[in-house]
Batch of 2 targets.
Target 1
Amino acid sequence: MNLLNMRIQGFKTKTTLIAALAVAGASPSVSQTVPDASVPQTGLNIPDELTIFGKNDPNVRRATAIVNGDIITGTDVSHRLALIVAANGGEVSDEEKQRLRLQVLRNLIDETLQIQEAEANEISISAEEVESTFRQVAQQNFKQDIDAFDQYLRTQGSSTDTLKRQIKGELAWNRLLRRNIQPFINVGDEEVNAIIERLNASKGTSEFRIGEIYMSASQETAPQVAENMRKILEQIRAGGSFVAYARQFSEASTAATGGDLGWVRPAQLPQTLADAAEQMQVGQVVGPIDVPGGFSILYLIDSRQVLTADPRNALLSLKQLAISFPPGTTESQAAARAEKFATATQSIKGCGAANEVAAQLGASVVDNDQVRLRDLPAALQGTIAELQIGQASQPFGSVEDGVRVLILCGRDDPQSASAPSFDAIMSRLENDRVNKRAQIYLRDLRRDAIIEYN
């Protein structure tokens, strides 16, 4: 799930390493000037009765924005948008695409401001650095060679240039934060030791591995931000990638790692998030949840007991036997053969006899001595956890994919878990504080920017 696998590099707001996907709405409307308990006040002295003169023609395409002299074109937006649409499997309505264009433009403006500020501080990112990171993206996230990845981007209506620009923006911003903010962040040893003591005192209590998408909101923008996040949640529940949404739109420091907060205890979270996490099931996504300064969407990646060995970390030695069905096999024919396969495999007496039985059944055999129980599909974990050495699981599969059984040849149970290291805890505290300063930094850049919209 990690893109760059960076810690301090994760300090960013809305731009990220790989374009992802989300649905975001237009900018919220301003409020009335007459005091009204039902309407948020902006203090901008805007009359209740107003007329908007002129209108934008959506059919006219020209340069989208000029940020302190740097141009963001409609092509820039379209290429970045194409990546988002591709991450959603191409299933994005025209209405949603229009909302996405607005969000992508805001992201590109932030990205431009970050690059400009880095250059103003004499920070440059070499083409070699960008290319190296680009290769990591292609290999780690797409498992394709560079040529295949380039072709893929073209077929999606995007380009390598737009992704490389995003990479450059993130690297430049991260380097700027490391130089201008991180040195002035102080975390005392006593703070870290206090956390370690609390962890030890909490041994056996629940902790969660959580993914978060955070978006800031003021009193005036809260309704629109909440609506945007509800649309993001709908896309994720419909099959969109939580990791990709987090990378593109989360304003937390964890955006670069797909929103992964790591392992946290309820006491470490805002109360609203803690309450939600304690009621969630692994794999569930909920939100938007009201938190100080904005809203969050939570994804419960996993759960465990603090400083207690997790049986799902057991290292297994498995032998897989599999049979396949020729084209045209009917359900009844497959069921008959699967039943015979089940009877034969359930009678196997240890892994030493498995190969002989496989030969009799015409089954293929695959051995793997390094499988963690937690890495198996959730539906299989409970079954395999209950097996004794030498026993076979019940058959599983389909007519299309064939039928398989897993035989447990060995199991090494995990040792007792230990508290995170002193350095790991200190790094996390530093990350949180740098992230807060980074958000203020970017907000100031937006306030001072000269932006022309065409």
Note: The longest helix spans residues 94-120.
Target 2
Amino acid sequence: MQVQARYDGKVYHNTLPTSVSPPSGYGALLKRYLFDRAEREPKAPLGPFRADAAALAAPVPADALRVTWLGHSTTLIEIDGRRFLTDPVWSERASPSQLVGPKRFFAPPLPLDKLPKLDAVILSHDHYDHLDSAAIRWLGKTGVPFFCPLGVGAHLRRWGVPAANITERNWWQTVELAPDFTLVATPARHFSGRGLTRNDTLWASWCLLGPQHKVFFGGDSGPFDEGFRQIGAAYGPFDLVMLEIGASDPEWANIHLGPDNALAAHQLLGGGPLLPLHWGTFNLAFHAWRQPVQRLLEAAAPDVQLLLPAPGQRVDVANGPLNSQWWER
């Protein structure tokens, strides 16, 4: 039986009991915030990083699978003749205010107005580090379709996206873009909310199923063995798997994977080239900013094909593993 989120008429609930409150209490978190010595932000400026806008604007070949990581969970996916943008965040801060809150470590490698023509924008949930109202307002004027979990469309409509360009889906529901190309909203173990609200919109992962290639975009999720196993059984193995590895901590182990659990999820999904997301862009946890990728490299088995491009570096997935080591420079 497929795992399902539960909606009680007011809020959504994970399939598994999931706490977003730290077991040690918020006082312990404040103490760590004030006194931990981890290098949570780079000591020196990063970048500038530059994506090749002219190359990205060229037509996507019908048999291509390429991806450009633009930072955090924002990626430009080129798959089987189509282009998709995930969780677009261009603002300087992942916050309700551009005066305070987590600040980018580096400028976006590609300006919004240099994005190529998109077939769709895919959204995983409504947290500020995944859903940037300024970017959505800009993208909404281009006429691009948006695909999002249930409830997230209300944000988009409020920011000027025409209702006709918004498609909302529950877990396991599909969108037929063409007879040979399908999007599927799939489960995740997380939560949602902006401002004082929580869990009044759904969160999701997504499968992109083209005629030649299949991609999994994990959004945000905590450990969720049955969910990942079911996704892998239904749609895997994938030609590209994108999972979060950063902003993790034992205090919120239910809602973020971290490197070790990402590797476990990767195996449950059926393996395949792995592009880690959700790290190296914002200070959202207590770990050192390099720790997620360093631990991923330590923990990954030799047969795991890691894709570790610099921000803005376009990756042709068929070319095999890539380790740019940009974080060390």
Note: The CA atoms of residues 40 and 288 lie 4 Å apart.
